[in-house]
Amino acid sequence: MKFKYIFGPVKSSRLGRSLGIDLLGEKICSFDCLYCEVGRTKNKTLARDVYVDPDLILNELEKWFKLLPIKPEVITFGGSGEPCLNITMGFLAREIKKRYDYPLAILTNSSLLENEVVLRELSLFDIILPSFDSAIEEEFVKINRPVKEIGVKNIEGGLLNLKQMFKGKIFLEILLLPNINASERNKQKLYEFVRKLQPDRVDITTLTRPGTYVKNPLNKLELEAWRQKFANFSFTRQRSTNTNEDNISSRYIKDISFLILNSLKRRPQTIKDISVALGIQEDEVKKEIEKLILKQKVKSITDFEKSEQYYKIIL
User: Fold this and answer.
1) 37-72: per-residue pLDDT in tens?
2) Quick one: angle between helices 282-294 and 256-263, nearest 10?
């Protein structure tokens, strides 16, 4: 079976084994970020709408849990664009919480957090992972390329609103690009804002794989300096709670290649990433990846920082 809106699970450094739900089906977003791995924004908007019939998503999710023996650690709303744009987000969150006993997380670019209806819907989640890349207007516009209605003050106000009403965990992400938003001025302004926001965690990241418009990551020394600055707001990445009992032999899975392709659907991964995400032994993953490369369904790419091999779907 082919899944259009359910993808993964993928190994997430912040969430563990994450099963993704795409609420949009294509690149619909309020931003068109330089670094986005999904591709160019086809519809840049702040308009909320029923971009995907929620019944299609719920039906796919039901079939996924019936067909596949892999238990995620969290279900995450993310995918092709900004999930808060889907006006059925709250309905889907309530239905999924009723049907499945997993924490519910959502990735957001923070652009709709001034909307009171959106904030009420977000209260249904256990973890929110918002992003905020620059507290300097010209840098923010350059890196995130937002709709004209959104500026730094909107992002800051929305995040502070979220902190005030949300009872779950907030994991803030800051992604840095050289010569764009890695300035000392931005570092200080973001630090001052984070001290006010007091999120549960801050992750400072850069590109590890080419983005849609840019391909160069921030150098290691600058990245480490930023991470040291925000060290009080970070913690050691936790190991997955899954044990060896979760490892699944490929003989119990009719189509292991389907699982791997579905896991790679939204994010390139290493052999180890896929193994952890799917609970399949690394040697079995490697054998199947080699077959998929020969069939020209998958190709390898090299990580900028770690000299590791990542694998991605050939479109």
Assistant:
1) 888 999 999 999 999 999 999 999 999 998 876 789
2) 80
